[in-house]
Design a protein that fits this description.
132 residues, 3-stranded antiparallel β-sheet, mainly beta, 12 strands
Length: 132
């Protein structure tokens, strides 16, 4: 039985044990689950996401039904465009808080892009949006 502390389980994810999988929200990214989804019973999720070299984003506008989404770039660069804010290039060390429901799109990225994404809840709906 897993012990819980205030409805969360203790968990550790090591990079050398982690495996990236292509089954995620975007086919041009691979995802490494950090175990936060299970440890928080779905209240939060965290992934390391990296680009699939040679694959490009279709730059499709979309939004998410969630209450929290933070992206921190650990390697490479990515250009996001946000409703009401325009395009922004994030580089290693850049962090963005994407407010709930904001229309956005990933425009382009480097082949060596790697980022950390933290969301709440762990599972959420994504909706296609009309270009601004």
């Amino acid at each position: 039985m897993t012990r819980l502390w205030k409805n969360q389980a203790f968990t550790i994810a090591h990079a050398d044990d982690g495996k990236f999988k292509g089954a995620g929200l975007r086919p041009f990214f691979e995802y490494r689950d950090l175990g936060i989804h299970e440890a928080t019973k779905g209240a939060y999720g965290a992934h390391v996401i990296r680009a699939v070299p040679g694959m490009e984003s279709p730059a499709a506008w979309h939004s998410h039904d969630l209450v929290f989404q933070m992206v921190y770039v650990t390697q490479g660069w990515v250009v996001f465009e946000y409703e009401g804010s325009g395009e922004h290039m994030l580089r290693a060390g850049s962090c963005v808080l994407q407010p709930p429901g904001i229309k956005h799109r990933e425009v382009r990225h480097s082949d060596d892009l790697e980022l950390l994404e933290v969301v709440s809840p762990a599972v959420f709906d994504t909706h296609d949006e009309v270009a601004l």
